[in-house]
Amino acid sequence: MRFPTTQWQIVEHLKDGSDEDRRRALGDIINLYGAPLMAFALRHSHGTRTTEDCEDSVNDFFVRCIEGGILAHADKARGRFRSFLVTSFRYFLLNERRSKQTQRRHPSGGFVSLATLREEMGAALEPRSNETPEDAFHRVLRRAQFDRVLAEFDSRCRAAGNDVMFRMFLLRDVRPAREGVPPPAYAGLAGTLGLASENAANKVALAAREEFRQLLFDAVGRDCTTSEEARAECEQILATALTQG
Predict the structure, then answer these.
(1) Are the CB atoms for 54 and 23 separated by under 8 Å?
(2) CB distance 223 to 145 below 8 Å
(3) 30: number of Cβ within 10 Å
(4) Stretches in the chain below the pLDDT threshold 50
(5) Within this chain, do residues 33 and 61 fall inside the same structural domain, yes or no?
(6) CA 116, 147, 19, 88: dihedral to nearest 10 degrees?
(7) Would you say 112 and 38 are in contact if contact means Cβ atoms under 8 Å apart?
(8) What sections of 109-170 are H helices per DSSP?
(9) In terms of domains, do 63 and 53 share one?
(10) Domain end: 127, 150, 173, which one?
């Protein structure tokens, strides 16, 4: 049976699935939400806690999700899963701060490694002075969603024997936007990628952009209630992910 793909289906497997399903479900949630929750914790601390303390808090939260049943209270009828998760994490941090002694119970090495997240996310993980913890969470989540779809796009292009399409998207759309430089000309890209002409490069770029946007829409749409909501979320993801830092 194909493993479920929507966040609410994953939560249901975490609640009621087999041990194998629960491990896979928790892994999926950690992979998507580890970095956004770290960004929330870093911003929430306002410099009053070390980055290591924030890392511990995220790992302890995931332990509580398993052992304390936090996710058992998640209810699709109450709204989007991400809203439930960030609200639960805020309460967790407040309760943790009030506690006189917090017993660290996360496994050796933890679920989430700050060093690994920084390697993957770079400057995007660092909090901005003008944003709330919730803003930081959503910004990093959108960056993480983009990167997951980008990895899927890479895999699909390779499987189809068309890695030129992925490289075109990376060189023309992603890297220039993230590095704050003008996109390279199609003539130069044609030479770099072994294409016949500037016009051929332009067509590959348009096809790559269209295919990536469809993959992004499909991924986002699994957790949106309407097409309009999914399209709006896609635009926010693109605006967030295709910026410097």
Answers:
(1) no
(2) no
(3) 17
(4) 1-4, 100-101, 105, 108
(5) yes
(6) 80
(7) yes
(8) 114-121, 133-159, 163-169
(9) yes
(10) 127
Query: Is residue 167 within 8 Å of 193, Cβ to Cβ?
Result: yes
How far from 179 is each of 40, 86, 130, 171, 176, CA to CA, in Å? 24, 30, 22, 11, 5
Same domain, 96 and 48: yes
Name the domain count of the chain: 2
**What is the phi/psi pair of residue 113, to 5°?**
-110, 120
Closest by CA position to 158, among listed 214, 234, 150: 150
**In 10 A of CB 8, how many CB atoms?**
15
Q: Residue 208: in which H helix or E strand, if any?
A: helix 198-221
126 torsion bin: left (phi>0), alpha (psi -120 to 50), beta (else)? beta
Q: Position of tokens 């306002």? A: 46
Q: Which of 35, 2, 4 is nearest to 223 (CA)?
A: 4
| Alpha-carbon Rg for the chain in angstroms | 20
Residue 203: C-alpha distances to residues 165, 192, 206 (Å):
10, 15, 5
Asked if residues 76 and 8 have their Cβ atoms less than 8 Å apart, the reply is yes
For 37, the token pair is 């929750």
Write out the residue range of the structural domain in which residue 206 sits: 129-245
pLDDT at 175: 95
- Tell me what pLDDT residue 208 has: 98
Together in a domain, 88 and 142: no
| pLDDT the model gives residue 233 | 93
C-beta of residue 158 within 8 angstroms of C-beta of residue 58: no
Which of 127, 152, 183 marks a domain boundary?
127
User: Which residue type sits at 13?
Assistant: H
